[in-house]
């Protein structure tokens, strides 16, 4: 399944960028075809999604799943299309409303995705409610990130898995992080271990993306503002972008953690 192809099913598409820009477009036949063949033409999102779905691999369909800080629900909707049931929560009412509207266009998805509006620093769920929690590029936006992690740990089942993606605490991100509404430049492995330790949570796998050459490719691709051209050229950028991830030259821009309770 091409990442983001789920959007081909909907009449309108709402998306947001890291710098706070929001987009809403009607989805015509050509847009639906492009989404089916290419998915979302965003290099960074695709790299994060690869990490998340690799970490999810093998999760039984009976798993109770929370998409924490779900935004417009791309992960929740994709998992629902794969047969999972997902609770999706986001702080912004407009985003949860948009997700609710999208899922109602497909009854099967509507049954499998429940939406909530609220903060992940005060989750409206019982202790140990979820076998899998996804929190993708969220906690760097939260002033009290320790409280957010505490709440995620509280609702994670004793044998559950948590997946967190964040910006990597690099010299590059130290310079630019205020541009994206982040409270901090990001996290390295040791910083993530420290924030997890009070809850007896351990990192069991780490994966990072977008190194020096990848950042150049990202900037070049984002300089294209004509959507059909972006779609046509996407894989010409994405394939070398994946090669950059394999070569790991320089500091990464983003990092993902697979986390479980300590034995």
Structure summarized in a few sentences:
With 263 residues, the protein is α/β, with parallel strands linked by helices. It has one domain: Vaccinia Virus protein VP39 (Rossmann fold, 3-Layer(aba) Sandwich), CATH 3.40.50. 41% of the residues lie in helices and 24% in strands.
Secondary structure: helix percent: 40-55%
Total number of strands: 9
Mean pLDDT over the full residue set: 93
The description of the largest β-sheet is: 7 strands, mixed
The quaternary structure here is single chain
Strand fraction band? 15-25%
CATH superfamily: Vaccinia Virus protein VP39
User: In CATH terms, what is the fold-level topology?
Assistant: Rossmann fold
Strand order of the largest sheet: 5-4-3-6-7-9-8
Termini distance? 34 Å
**CATH C-level:** Alpha Beta
Task: Give the second-level CATH assignment, the architecture.
Answer: 3-Layer(aba) Sandwich
- By DSSP (H or I, 4+ residues per run), the number of helices equals 10
Provide an overview of this structure.
With 263 residues, the protein is an alpha/beta fold. Helices cover 41% and strands 24% of the residues. It has one domain (5-261): Vaccinia Virus protein VP39 (Rossmann fold, 3-Layer(aba) Sandwich). The radius of gyration is 18 Å and the shape is globular. It has ten helices and nine strands.
Furnish the topology, listing elements before pairings.
Layout: E1 12-16, E2 22-26, H1 29-38, H2 43-56, E3 64-68, H3 74-81, E4 85-90, H4 93-104, H5 107-112, E5 113-117, E6 130-136, H6 145-155, E7 156-167, H7 171-176, H8 189-196, E8 201-209, H9 212-222, H10 227-247, E9 254-261
Parallel strand pairs: 3-4, 3-6, 4-5, 6-7
Antiparallel strand pairs: 1-2, 7-9, 8-9
Helix pairs in contact: 9-10
């Amino acid at each position: 399944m091409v990442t983001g192809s789920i959007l081909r099913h909907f009449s309108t598409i709402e998306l947001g960028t890291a710098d706070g820009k929001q987009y809403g477009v009607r989805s015509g036949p050509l847009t639906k075809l492009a989404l089916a063949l290419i998915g979302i033409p965003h290099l960074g999102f695709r790299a994060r999604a690869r990490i998340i779905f690799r970490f999810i691999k093998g999760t039984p369909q009976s798993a109770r799943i929370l998409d924490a800080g779900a935004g417009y629900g791309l992960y929740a909707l994709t998992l629902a299309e794969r047969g999972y049931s997902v609770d999706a929560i986001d702080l912004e009412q407009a985003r949860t409303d948009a997700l609710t509207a999208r899922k109602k266009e497909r009854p099967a998805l509507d049954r499998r995705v429940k939406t909530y509006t609220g903060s992940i620093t005060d989750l409206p769920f019982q202790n140990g409610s979820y076998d899998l929690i996804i929190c993708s590029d969220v906690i760097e936006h939260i002033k009290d990130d320790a409280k957010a992690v505490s709440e995620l740990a509280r609702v994670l089942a004793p044998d559950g898995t948590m997946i967190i993606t964040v910006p990597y605490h690099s010299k590059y991100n130290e310079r630019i992080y205020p541009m994206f509404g982040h409270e901090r430049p990001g996290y390295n492995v040791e910083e993530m271990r420290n924030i997890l330790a009070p809850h007896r949570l351990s990192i069991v796998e780490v994966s990072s993306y977008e190194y020096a050459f990848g950042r150049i490719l990202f900037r070049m691709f984002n300089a294209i503002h004509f959507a059909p051209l972006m779609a046509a050229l996407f894989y010409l950028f994405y394939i070398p972008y994946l090669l950059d991830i394999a070569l790991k030259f320089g500091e990464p821009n983003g990092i993902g953690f697979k986390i479980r309770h300590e034995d």
